[in-house]
Amino acid sequence: MTQFIGEIPTSRAAHHRHLYEETITILNGEGFLWTDETKTPVRPGDTIFLPRKQHHSLECTTSDGMRLVGVFYPSMSPAINY
Q1: Cα–Cα distance between 31 and 61 in angstroms, integer?
Q2: What span, in angstroms and rounded, lies between the C-alpha atoms of 11 and 66?
Q3: Is residue 52 within 8 Å of 21, Cβ to Cβ?
Q4: How far is CA 13 from the centre of its chain?
Q5: How confident is the model at residue 77, as a pLDDT?
Q6: What would the pLDDT profile of 17-39 be if each residue is shown by its tens digit?
Q7: What domain range includes position 48?
Q8: pLDDT beneath 50: ranges in the chain
Q9: Can you tell me the distance from the alpha carbon of 63 to that of 65, in angstroms, rounded to the nearest whole number?
Q10: What is the pTM of this model?
Q11: How many domains is the chain built from?
C-alpha cells in the first residue's frame, strides 16, 4: 500500500481512472465525487472506496479547497492513470 495526502483547489479534477484500488478520506472541504453514473456529495469524514479502473473525479466547491488522505493498493505510482 502507498499512503498519500492531497489538496484540491476549488475546481473539478479531470475525469480519470487508475490501474489500482484507491481509498480516500475527506479531511476538510466539501464537493462532489463524479463517476460515470453518479454525482455524490462529499464532506469531511467521508471515506470513498474506488475499485480498480473506476472512472472518477473529485470536485471541490469550498473556497478554502479540500484536503484528503488516502491509500493506493497495490503499491504503485499514483501517476499511473489511463
Answers
A1: 5
A2: 10
A3: yes
A4: 9
A5: 61
A6: 888 889 999 999 999 999 999 99
A7: 2-73
A8: 82
A9: 6
A10: 0.84
A11: 1
